[in-house]
Structures are given as C-alpha cells and as structure tokens.
Amino acid sequence: MRIVLATLGSFGDLHPFLAVGRGLVARGHTVTLASCPQYRAKVEAAGLRFAPLRPDAPAPEDASELARKVMDAREGTRTVLKDWVMPVLRETYADLAAACDGADLLVNHTIVFPGPLLAQKTGLPFLSAVLQPIVFFSEYDPCVPPTTPRWQGFARLPRPLVRAAYRLGWRMTRPWLAPVDAFRAELGLPPDPRHPLIEGQFSSRGTLALFSAALAAPQPDWPINTVQTGFAFYDSLDGKTEALPAALETFLASGEPPVVFTLGSSAVMTAGNFFEQAVEATKTLGCRAVLLTGRDQPVPPNLPASILAVPYAPHSRLMPRAAVNVHQGGVGTTGQALRAGKPQVVVPFAHDQPDHAARITRAGLGATVYRDSCTARTLAAALQPLLRDAALQERCRMVGEQLQQEDGVARACEAIERGH
C-alpha cells in the first residue's frame, strides 16, 4: 500500500509520524512523509520518502521573533493558525496533492487543513491523526483551553456548562480559519459549517489517537471509529539508535539520579531565564541536575560539578535515569516522561501544554509550575516533595510499566491497514 503521512509543526508533531512511518515500512508498505522542508534530512535518515509541505521554518533573522509569538501563553495558538498556516493554505494544498499523487491512503495531522479538502475533492481515502487529547474537546474529560492556560475549572463544571463554554470558544476562533471556507469554495466543494479544527478535521473512516490512556482515557464523545493506539515514540536525531553522550553517561554513573530539565524543541527557543532558575533551584535543594539546553542556545555560566549541561540527549535513555523530569509539557516529552516512570514538574508555555500539566497534576504524577511564575523558589518548592514522596514515586513507576507494555506503533499500523 502507498501511504502518505502529512504533518506540520515541531519535533513533537513530526516524531510520532516518523515512528509510524518506519513501522509501516517494516510491514512492507511504501511510505512518504510530507512535512516542513526543513525536515527532509531527518526524514530521509529515518528511511522514509520525503515530500515538502509548506510552510517552512522562517529565515534565521525572523525565527526568534516567531518563536516568541508562537510560544505566547494566550496568543500562541492563534499565531500558529492565523499567521503561519492560513497564509499558505493554497501552497500547502498543492504540495499535499503532489505528495498524494498515486497514493492509496492519507494519514493527516490536525493542522494540515488541506488534507480533508483534498480527500473530498479527489476521493482519496484518509484517516485523521490526533496527538493530544485536547484536540477532542471532550465534554466528559474537559481540557484546559489554550486561551486560558491557568484556568482548570472546566474539570469541575457540569457537562452542559462545558458544552456552552466550548461552543463560545469555537465561535470566537472560527474566524481565524475563514481562509479554509474561501478555499473550499474555490475548489468547488460545498459549504461546510463545521469548524475545521474541531469536527471538520475528522475522517468518518477513522481517527488515530496517538497517545496513551495514561494521559487521557477514551470518552463517549470522541469521533466515530477512533482507535487509541498509545504513544508512537521516536527521539533520534539521525535515524539511528543513539547512546547517551559519553560525558553524560559518566556524569550519571558518578552519583545520585539527577533532576533533568528540558524544554523540548520549541519552548527551548524562548527559554528566557529558565535554566538559570533551574540551576539555583537545584543548588538550594542540594541535588544534581542535567540541563538539556538545546543546540545553539546559551548555557548558564560557571556550573558546579553537580550540574551538567548538554545540547541534546534522547529522552528515552535519559529520563528513566532521572530523579524527577522537569519539562514544558509538549505531548512527546510528556509521553516520554510518563514512560520513564519518574515524577514530573511541568512548566507549560502554550498550546496543549497547560492541559497536559493539569492532567499530570490531577493524576498525582507530579506538579505544575506556570511559566510566568517559574523561579528558583517555585521550582524548588515543587521539586522537594516529589523527591521525597515514596507513594507518588510508586504511582509513577506503575504508570511507566504500563506504557512500556504498550506498542503504539504496532497498533497504529494495524489501524491504518484496517482503515484502508
């Protein structure tokens, strides 16, 4: 079968599709991954065919300003949709149509809005793929909306009020996606009153929920024919199985498990003083730490011997050896932290991250420190009980064992084969 996987966004959006693509290739399928042009080398190194899908990353001189806007707590989601995706909707459609020429099936990411349009226009079978539980906007399992990242009151509201609040939010955000309606008319497709980011993205053929029930369990109002696969893990830079850097391996072996601090692949570009505050927090607690500071990002100066900074390390190899993992709450990072079986402190920046932070905290698997109040004092206050709470540590260990038994890639591949 000839399958196209289409995704846009950060590594958190790319990696699950890489994992599923590799699984499909191993099962004998021909797979093309269509994504931002900047990912060509990474995709091809993973052994998949690549097709460019605009928009690409901004020019270096514009990247930091866009990153600041994209990771803004309240306006980030609007920026991604209205300012990054919508202006090149027609170009994305043209790229996707070229990638899907001769394909038997499309597996489509949430914000690849031309996917459902192309499927309707050409008759190409497609499956929708969801990486985060927030995308389902379930009345039974209310989320933390991106536009109100600190408000977790939805979880305590009766369902009719949740439904009313969702509908208000959908009306407010619908104009952001008006270009989808205009382009639909240009293609000669009938009008569709559905919200392209809500009901309009899902395929009646089926939807892949590419996350574990440990993060969010299935709900009665999920789309028809949804298959929850579990996480599809991938965290290699070059498509090969990677060992930890030698200096990091030596550091880990030389003392007690450290607190690991990471901001994933997007939030790290707007880290601000996060790592400096992390250093002071660990000094206060007297514990060791590893800082994953990102490539080409500044490293705090004059680090003591108890703290090591490295640009990158595979989360799947480092996080299980941590005492606590502190991260931004991206879905890929959250999944890796859950599988590691260790407590978490989530410092959410934007988008789905506040929702994941709330889920981790409600489940008794860690704590939340909001970005605008993230200081050495608040980090230390969140970390201290996690380092001592044996019952919480045991809950985390059990969840880790559960995820280690899941095979999200295999389940996703099986669902794709059935969906065709």
From TrEMBL:
GO terms for molecular function: hexosyltransferase activity; UDP-glycosyltransferase activity. The keyword Transferase applies. Residues 295-401 form the Erythromycin biosynthesis protein CIII-like C-terminal domain. One of its GO terms (biological process) is carbohydrate metabolic process. InterPro entries: EryCIII-like_C (IPR010610), Glycosyltransferase_28 (IPR050426), GlycoTrans_28_N (IPR004276), UDP_glucos_trans (IPR002213). Residues 3-56 form the Glycosyltransferase family 28 N-terminal domain. Keywords: Transferase. It holds the Pfam family Glyco_transf_28. This is UDP:flavonoid glycosyltransferase YjiC (YdhE family).
